[in-house]
Amino acid sequence: MAGVQDQLEIKFRLTDGSDIGPKAFPAATSVATLKESVLAQWPKEKENGPRTVKDVKLISAGKILENNKTLGECQSPLCDIPGGVTTMHVVVQPPPLEKDKQTW
């Protein structure tokens, strides 16, 4: 039975309300790996998609997830429903503005 609990079903909700997934991930999966999965599965027809993992923020249970944490470490007790799907919200940071354009 432990093998079932080690897998978490996750779907990624994009800002326009569409979803990527759900897909099963082991509890030992890092947040950085989840972000790589989002990048790989990002719909090509959507504008302003992320270019790198640094452009992506994942939010679960109201918390921004850190790259070095695992799914198991980030899992909320509210999401501990057997057979349930956890929804993580995806936020894409816009590229930073060029600093040399602003002169004081």
Automatic annotation (TrEMBL):
Family matches, as InterPro entries: MUB (IPR017000), Ubiquitin-like_dom (IPR000626), Ubiquitin-like_domsf (IPR029071), UBL3-like (IPR040015), UBL3-like_ubiquitin_dom (IPR039540)
Entry keywords, A to Z: Cell membrane, Lipoprotein, Membrane, Methylation, Palmitate, Prenylation
UniProt entry tagged with the keyword Transmembrane: no
Function: May serve as docking site to facilitate the association of other proteins to the plasma membrane.
A cellular component annotation (GO) from this entry: plasma membrane
Protein name: Membrane-anchored ubiquitin-fold protein
Domain of life: Eukaryota
Keyword Membrane on entry: yes
PANTHER family per record: MEMBRANE-ANCHORED UBIQUITIN-FOLD PROTEIN 2, UBIQUITIN-LIKE PROTEIN 3 HCG-1 PROTEIN
Primary location class: membrane
Domain Ubiquitin-like: 8-74
Origin species: Corchorus olitorius
Subcellular localization: Cell membrane
PROSITE patterns xrefs: UBIQUITIN_2
